[in-house]
Amino acid sequence: MKFKSVYLLALIVLASCKDSKSPESVESTDYSEEHLDVTTSTYPEAITKVFEAHGGIDTWNTMTTLTFTMEKEDGDEVTTTNLKTRAELITTPTYNLGYDGDKLWVDEKDGTPYVGNAQFYKGLMMYFYAMPFVVGDDGIIYEMAEPLLFDGKSYPGILVSYESGIGVSPDDQYIIYYDEQTGQMQWLAYTVTFGKDGKNKDFRYIRYNNWQTLNGLVLPKSIDWYVVENGLPKEKRNTVEFSNVSIS
Asked: Which of 19, 131, 170, 214 is least enclosed by beta carbons within 10 angstroms?
């Protein structure tokens, strides 16, 4: 009896729904006359293609902690970053540099004075390492750039700039150059405006052509800085290698 009651109720509901969907009840709206305030998290097609070639921005956004080591003349430099807050700890044989999301500090070791600009260096190498995913941050503007021609091959470019007030150097600009067939990032052009007013037109170049896959993400094993001549990369200047990489 219980089953028959449920069946009868279902028939009544279906009949009611059918009656309510008559053509007369549908109104047409001319959206050309309406102002639509639409917020979307969809990225432009070109940068989405690059993200996907490196494991996807959704996979990146599940990660919390990134650690890598760079070998320096005075010993290993280990960088650990909280990817959600961008808090960071950089440890070396002569100093520790820390940022808790609010305050920045330097702890000198064995009386060796820290030489450098902590505010500038904070987050710098993490940003270069975490390309292309860090250009998926909020407050970024994407435009198409002129392709880069190097050794007879053309690389499409995506110009990345920042809305006013984003970061400590909102006038910085980056260009992601990628392989048109695979979508994989191949070059980064960037400007440095820290401590200066206005944008800088002098781009520096890093080549990304040595990759490794960690937790589903394609990340650098090493990157190469290039000598720039007439605004374009000419020849390799130096290589920075990353070891003991962990992302989780």
From this structure: 19
Q: What is the pLDDT of residue 166?
A: 54
The structure's pTM equals 0.80
Residue ranges of domains in the chain, CATH in brackets:
45-245 (2.50.20)
SS3 240: strand
pLDDT tens digit string along 171-184?
789 999 999 999 99
Q: How far apart are CA 128 and CA 163, in angstroms?
A: 20
240, 222 in Cβ contact below 8 A? yes
Q: Give the Cα separation of 114 and 104 in Å (integer).
A: 14
pLDDT digits (tens, 9 = 90+) for 46-91: 999 999 999 999 999 999 999 999 999 999 999 999 999 999 999 9
Q: Tell me: the pLDDT tens digits for 211-220?
A: 999 999 999 9
Structure tokens at 111: 């009386």
The CA distance from 43 to 184, in Å, is 16
**DSSP characters over 140-180:** EEEEEEEEEEETTEEEEEEEEEE-TTSSS-TT--EEEEE-T
Quick check: bond before 156 cis, omega within 30?
no
Strand 104-108 and strand 95-99: pairing? antiparallel
Can you tell me the distance from the alpha carbon of 140 to that of 127, in angstroms, rounded to the nearest whole number? 14
Which tokens go with 156?
A: 């499409």
- Per DSSP, the three-state class of 122 is coil
Q: What is the pLDDT of residue 29?
A: 38
Report the pLDDT averaged over residues 219-238: 97
Residues 6 or more apart whose CB falls under 8 angstroms from that of 213 comprise 55, 219
